[in-house]
Amino acid sequence: MKDITDKEFWQIRDYVKVNLGISLSDEKKSLIYSRLRSTLQELGFENFTQYYEYLVGDKTKQALVRFIDKVTTNHTFFMREVEHFEYYRDTALPAIEETWGTGKDLRLWCAACSSGEEPYTLAMINQDYFKGKGWNTQLLATDISNEILDKAVYGVYSNESLSALPEKWKKDYLTRFDADHSSISNEIKSQVIYRKFNLMETNFRFKKKFHVIFCRNVMIYFDSDTRDQVVSKFYDMTEPGGFLFIGHSETLSHSNTQYKYIMPATYKKI
């Protein structure tokens, strides 16, 4: 099979930008080739031009789904950027309880949930905090990759990846799967609703606004214009007084967002 040409890479790069919001630098050319080479061979294509035509011509979008699974990187772990979870538990949840306590309905969205470590951590925090208070604490977790969502729903992780969790959580919310892995308990799994969702959707159509949105370590792949557009849609879907958490390697343009800066990677809608 032929190597990918500059023209073919540029076509795929532009397609990725339009459909996923991800900006691929020229240095990613070899990565695209290595990630997609086996797919082209399976499909019987001789070059990337044939693959590109197949990709854009597929009205079912199944080719795009497979493309997403191949080219996106999902790297996360439990208790990543632990300061966020501590602030969520110690500051955000008491504020939410005080402001929206009458409704007893926590609305939380993990907008780039990857393989489930983040939403399950938040579900455990919610379980501890709201125990016996009668709140609905089911949270929404979304991602663009079917493959990674399947892993999240399965909810089985290596014991090594779970090592940062408190011992109480390991006892209360994990069950033995085998010698090297543990499974998230059904009690916690039932608190997370997984859905496929692309942040490049023109409008975020949800019935109600969210008290908290987590979108960490995905907007780093967006250019500034795309990031500002996504953040603007997050803002519209955040309740006044609600919170947005982004990754510590990410920043928001203070001149282009109405969120108020609280602390590194933490913002509030005033």
Ends distance: 55 Å
Helix/strand structural class = alpha/beta
Helix content: 40-55%
- CATH hierarchy, class of the largest domain: Alpha Beta
Strand content: 15-25%
How large, in whole angstroms, is the Cα Rg? 20 Å
- Are there runs of 5+ residues with pLDDT below 50, and where? none
CATH level-3 fold name of the largest domain: Rossmann fold
Q: What is the averaged pLDDT score?
A: 92
* Series of H and E elements: HHHHHEHEHEHEEHEEHEEE
The count of strands amounts to 10
Counting H and I runs of at least 4 residues, what is the number of helices?
10
Order the strands across the largest sheet as they lie in space. Answer: 6-2-1-7-8-10-9
Largest pleated sheet:
7 strands, mixed
Q: Tell me which CATH architecture of the largest domain applies here.
A: 3-Layer(aba) Sandwich
| Shape designation | globular
Domain count, please report it. 2
Full CATH superfamily name of the largest domain: Vaccinia Virus protein VP39
